[in-house]
Amino acid sequence: EDVPSQTFDNKDYFCGKETFPVYESIFTEEGETIRKIAIETEKPPQIEIHVWTIKKGILHHFYVEKLSKREFEGLPYFKLITRTTLSQWKIFSEGEAQISQMCESRVCRTELEDLVKVLYLEKSEKGHC
């Protein structure tokens, strides 16, 4: 299911907080889904990719890899899905660690979907920053 895309050109949209691009790649092959969520950071300038291997809804393998921006640019299939703050990314990473343990023995489709939604920033009302 597609989440509506956000526009990224308005600083007020995120209350002036620095945001970072988040990319996603989903690849299915032989009954296995490989889902990758990547964030591009400036300090250090790199791409952090979180890779989930899912078989029949069960998270079988999870790991994190780091690439240079140049290496990342050569990878196919990634699309920009949102921008997020470092605090939201931290929530995502912590939730991911919990889910990776919890979902080794049971189906966790909704938990993984909900975790990705954490990265989408809510549009703030003016004056509520």
Automatic annotation (TrEMBL):
Q: Which GO terms describe its molecular function?
A: BMP binding
Which superkingdom is the protein from?
Eukaryota
Q: Which UniProt keywords apply?
A: Developmental protein, Glycoprotein, Repeat, Secreted, Signal
Q: Does the keyword Glycoprotein apply?
A: yes
What do the Gene Ontology cellular component annotations say? extracellular space
InterPro entries named among the record's database cross-references: CHRDL1/2 (IPR045717), CHRDL_1/2_C (IPR045716)
GO terms, biological process: cell differentiation; negative regulation of BMP signaling pathway
The compartments listed are: Secreted
Pinpoint the Chordin-like protein 1/2 C-terminal domain residues: 10-129
Can you name this protein? CRDL1 protein
Q: Specify the species.
A: Cardinalis cardinalis
